[in-house]
Design goal:
By secondary structure, the protein is mostly helical. The protein has 28 helices and 12 strands. The radius of gyration is 31 Å and the shape is elongated.
Length: about 725
Amino acid sequence: VHYLLLSAPWSVLCYYAEELQLRLPLQALPNQASNWSARVLGRLGIRNVMAEEVPNLPLDHYTCQFKVNKLQWFLGSDKQDTFFSTTQRHQILYEILATTQYGRSKEREVGVDWLLSENVFSAAFPLHDGPFKLPSEESAPSSLNQRQILFQYWANWRKWYKYQPLDHIRKYFGEKVAFYFTWLGFYTGWLLPAAVVGTLVFIAGIFLMFDDVPAQEVCESKEQYRMCPLCKSCPYWQLSSICETFKAGRLFDHGGTIFFSMFMSLWAVMFLEYWKRMNASLAHRWDCSDFEDIEERPRPQFTATAPMTIINPITGTEEPYFPKRSRHHRILAGSMVVIMMIAIVVMFVVSVILYRVVVAILLASSGYFRFVASASRIASITGSVVNLFFILILSKIYISLAHFLTKWEMHRTQTKYEDAFIFKVFVFQFVNFYSSPFYIAFFKGKFVGYPGNYVNFLGVRSEECSPGGCLIELAQELLIIMVGKQMINNTQEVVIPKLKCWWQKHRFDSSKKAAKERESEKAPWEKNYQLLVFEGLFDEYLEMVMQFGFITIFVAACPLAPLFALLNNWVEIRLDAQKLVCDYRRPVAERAQGIGIWFYILEVIAHLAVISNAFLIAFTSDFLPRTYYKHIYDSSLRGYVNFSLAHAPWDFVQHNNTACRYRAFRDPDGNFSSTYWQLLAIRLGFIIAFEHVVFFIARLIELLVPDIPESVEIKVKRERYLAKEALAENKVGF
């Protein structure tokens, strides 16, 4: 393996800094990083254990776009070695490598990425600042390199409760990586109140479970309520046999659920509003407020393959161009592929439903008492596990397909390319992950008919909820998918990078002995080459956004979801940090204005969560039927179990010579009773009231919380004034 170490002379750096519209400092300021929790604790006079002094804290600056003919007005322009930061040098070198033609122009042989894809070069990467391990435990903090500082104060498990050194992350990895970790830390901090309230609601459910009158009636009913079979070959069963399951259902289905659903809906809105403010503050501090609108250049891959050029109406410069009409045709064709893949997901969901029905029938007719008694529960749990594996396999296949389609669509900038790719994958993953929970929450057990007149689906009787109800099934499904996926992902993130690193070193070193002899002698580029390729932050963002959906869309069914998310994210931050600092080659620093299209996806999820929770409480939970019974019949809920069960129609009883009950509000002929229609009106009224109240409060919060803090607006005006003064001096070059 042969290595080429590239650097750029001062004249080249200056030329490309102006070409790339890099922003450089005019005036230094003290670092103005602040944290809302630090401010709150300071006002309360409580010592902040999360704060820590990190060495070599970068200064803040007033900045403006670099101009070579105004060089003397920029801070530090007399020191050529340090004027441009390491990440800016990396950006300039990558721009040169990515846009330089190396072959025939007709064949579009342009850029280092093409050379890498053709295996002319095996890798191209910026070097890390040095080793991440400390030379000794007593090393002076000021003597540490940037990588060692990040390892010691960020990618260290002992720092799990400390603030992340965001300015150091930005200085070393660039704005795109820094924005991801800022958002992840901000989201994890906001999960803390949600987890506390959710845990309190769950604990309240434990106390209510023991004092619940309907649960006591079920447990004490013995053979009072003989229930109709749950499937064609299933036996009759006693309601008292589901005593424990019925009690467990009260953990998730009680009055606190309403409060928590409303709390989480407003929590999601406030979280996004305050993130907007945080994003605006950081975008200004990190000099990327106008990046997407003005500064972002075409992707090198787009430049290499675009068939024509056009004048940019904003910058006035000539740029590569791909006709919009052709792009729209390609996007339409790609959309058809996405729809086809979604149809495949729906087919898999239907197959899981059929699997549950078939397994329940086989277990119920097996003759083994334990299997017969738990047939529905076993089918439901195994169905959730099968569904999780389907989800993970289909995800891997589709992401590769989405990469190909997005490249084919020829998007001009990296931001637009990533937004198109993210949107495709999210739509697919949304259906992939949430289709089964949506089915259990809103469709399962709702269209089954009644004894003697059951509804069939593909020749099989429609699936009923398990004896404990659909809400506890939904909670079980969420925990298996959400917690199971988190455990699998975290295991992969720990084990796979370590195995890959070991394999890389094993490939490059001919023997263990040689490896030991050469380890200390290896040049930095050799050590860096043995690290893994950084493949972007898409998977990390997707994992967190899907988690956000689980803790908001279905939170009425599982108040513990925010707690599991919080615990996972504490681990996730340090895992991702360790991978970047220790296991991956240093990525080329990329600029960004925020978290991109992910923010708009989060907004859609937050709105969908309000509607979902309203329908969940109205149609899946027992809250409204219980409230109705309390006000109309008995405030103590005595007799509620009998009230909620219908008698099997007379012709069914005659045909089977056995009377039985089933869960529904129907009369003895199988028609919906007046109670059903009254409850339907109450349910629809509740949905309308819940949505209007939550959306009204959400709009009020949006109006009261400005998107850009006033302090940031003042700083922007001050910076523009300084830039105008500096660049207008002597009117040179204008």
